[in-house]
Amino acid sequence: MLHEIDLSRTDLNLLVVFQAVLEERHVARASRRLNLSPSAVSHSLGRLRSLLGDPLFLRTPRGVTPTGRAEALAAPIAEILARVREVVATAEPFAPERSTRRFTIGAPDGVSSVFLPPLLVALGREAPGIDLSVRQLLPRPGEPAPELAWRDSFADLEARRMEILVMPVDEVPARFDRRLLYEEDFVIAARAGHPFAIAPTLARYADAAHLVVSHAGDPFGFVDAALAGLGLSRRVALTAPNFPFALAVLAESDLIAALPRRFVARHGARFGLEAVEPPLALPRFRLQAVTPRVALMDAGLAWLVGKLEAAASA
Predict the structure, then answer these.
(1) CATH entry, 186-283, from 3.40.1000.10, 1.20.58.220, 3.40.190.10, 3.40.50.10540
(2) Closest CA to 301 of 132, 79, 172
(3) What's the per-residue H, E or C state across 226-274?
């Protein structure tokens, strides 16, 4: 990528600046992220432009946009920086029992509440000094394609605002690694003794009052599409903003809801809920742990991904 004759004029900070500007698409935001002044970032970009013989970033009303040359350099530079960080980290090899790192995991709340309990048990036993931050992942509303619906989450992952995403996708861009954690399907959750739970027929299901988990409050979902294929419809009496809130409402009402099977199995009993098989075919999906490929050279992150895989199968 760089000619040997130019290495005497190069330092790693230039590559760090390049990566920050590429990810932020804005010089001022990159400067804040790096704790540098905008003029210092601009000066570093000037040195890189001279070194590489390309403008690299073009100004726009909203910030900057990378040139084709900058886009081509993105992956090699990310790999170089990841390898350097790994070399530096080997000065003190990762030891989970001594580590005091904090990792950030992004996942929908109905998913994080499945893998977190066994993961916390494992961390308490093997890495008591490691802390976690969990961020709620939400797809962009109205985007049918997964790569579009989750593109904000992928951007956060590349910007290192999260280390791991746990999300319902089958394919991810080639620069990411994905590990299948588990497959999920749906059950119908209702309070104990609910008439539907006693006789879970399709007719009773369509006639029942339903709860739908929807952060945006949209009452139409995959269940409605499945019912429409059978010439049926339902009444959505309530939308709930998250899955834990849905459990509390179901426990004290006559509403029913289609919820992820593992989520209900782990948390439904404490709310006195029953889970019955749906009287119609509902979709299945695969939960994947997604990380940047280069980031897995971090021994600590690779260790955590392994613990997450084990927790998901617990």
Answers:
(1) 3.40.190.10
(2) 132
(3) HHHHCCCCCEEEEEECCHHHHHHHHHCCCCEEEEEHHHHHHHCHHHCEE
Tell me if domain 102-180+286-312 and domain 186-283 are identical in fold.
yes
Structure tokens at 1: 């990528």
Per-residue pLDDT of the chain (314 residues; tens, 9 = 90+): 444 444 555 678 889 999 999 999 999 999 998 989 999 999 999 988 988 889 999 999 989 999 999 999 988 888 888 777 766 655 568 899 999 889 999 999 999 999 999 999 999 999 999 999 999 988 877 666 666 677 788 888 888 889 999 999 888 888 899 999 999 999 999 999 999 999 999 999 999 999 999 988 889 989 999 999 999 999 999 999 999 999 999 999 999 999 999 999 999 999 999 999 999 999 999 999 999 998 888 889 999 999 999 999 88
CATH of span 102-180+286-312? 3.40.190.10
Specify the fold of 4-89: Arc Repressor Mutant, subunit A (1.10.10)
**Which amino acid would we find at residue 160?**
R
What residues contact residue 274 under an 8 Å CB cut-off, 6+ apart? 189, 190, 191, 192, 194, 197, 268
Task: Read off the pTM.
Answer: 0.71
